[in-house]
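ERR on first pass: missing label on line 2. Operator R.T. fixed the label and resubmitted. Corrected input:
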Amino acid sequence: MGWFTMVQLFTGIDDEGMKQLAGCMRMRVSRYKAGERIAELSGKIEKLGLFIEGRGHLELLDEDGVCTRVEEYREGDVFGELFFLPREDSYCSVEADEDCRVMFLDWGHIVRPCPQSCVYHARLISNLFQLAAEKSRQLSAYTDLLTKRSLRQKLLTYFETLRREYGSDTFLLPMSLSSLAEYLCVDRSAMMRELKSMRDDGLLVSQKRQITLLRRK
Amino acid sequence: MGWFTMVQLFTGIDDEGMKQLAGCMRMRVSRYKAGERIAELSGKIEKLGLFIEGRGHLELLDEDGVCTRVEEYREGDVFGELFFLPREDSYCSVEADEDCRVMFLDWGHIVRPCPQSCVYHARLISNLFQLAAEKSRQLSAYTDLLTKRSLRQKLLTYFETLRREYGSDTFLLPMSLSSLAEYLCVDRSAMMRELKSMRDDGLLVSQKRQITLLRRK
DNA sequence: ATTTTGCTGTTGCAAATCCCACATATTTAT
DNA sequence: ATAAATATGTGGGATTTGCAACAGCAAAAT
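pass 2 clean. output:
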């Protein structure tokens, strides 16, 4: 089987299907050097890209000229207006952090009814819906975090998702403590203090990025 | 033209198209009394509903048995796993707040390639993608708010979106000040204090729900 | 007409959080 | 191997925010 079997966008599609889709969707692969611009996102759904090799990110230039990295991409990740629809008045682009190979699919051909009305086409659409739904879920989970009123609640909520994900009370944070503070939108020193306080209260054991939740309930 | 022309889900679809789709999608309309359960959402995309009449909401029962209203629906609004995909371990349902009429579309028939590969079908799918993208954008805008570190920044960010929306420096808040505080996840009295401080600093004029932004930049 | 309920506006005080500064690992680059 | 950059851990002190309480007002219910 080809490389694409590992890509969520193409789950359920075999070699035969890929061959058929490649023509039907006008798939094309482009190469980019680190630092190059891969695509610009508009206010309408019209592009769909897939990172085949290398890493990149989506950045947003706000009206004050401030540039922020909004999403990070690596092999297998998709981007496009379906997943991030910029406001009309902002400039938004996907940039290569390393040398990349990126596949583009023509949006018009995705939505347009396939002359052969092939099952592969339907599967691709289904996969896209799945990806869109998961993206929403992810965003919801994040807002759920942010709406928590106290630092402790934020940490616990986040740790809880990690516990579920790893299926274990002990896990390693997938990022540095500094980054975690940023992610939770709190001050790092305040977070360290709160972590200590949670250790003191017997809620968890922690050392560097290793956390063990106690008091399962 | 029919009532459905005003519904985002059916934009671009005429009477003829609706007739064709109705059979093709196995559309069916059900009635519910206030308080009744309209649907349960699972962890897989398999349902799509549309409020034709009446209001309702989506609620989530978390593992501790705490119930929260997550989304509110009125005429023309859609719901389903595409828009809110619950975690496997949670119970999630749509409930009627008033007497309702709700249309259901069969998800299998939406994704399955249409034997006639009709353009209406393609348009519906396209509309669904559009709705999914807008849902994501909305969530992103909200997280953007919540990631702001200070109360003042939260207020300004929110007011800025209202200014854009209304196209005017003066506007009426679409909710009570109390609800706004909840929405921004801050204490109401703290918010009132901050509003006063912003008035003192000449950033805006405000009285009750009426806001006028000064210092446009 | 009266009561009840909810929204607005304000205050003192307590608690949580942020900012800054420093010391020590640990990792990365040269 | 050495230097530089980044990550971790801690603390003091200023600031922001949350909490609780109250009063005036307006809308809605009785």
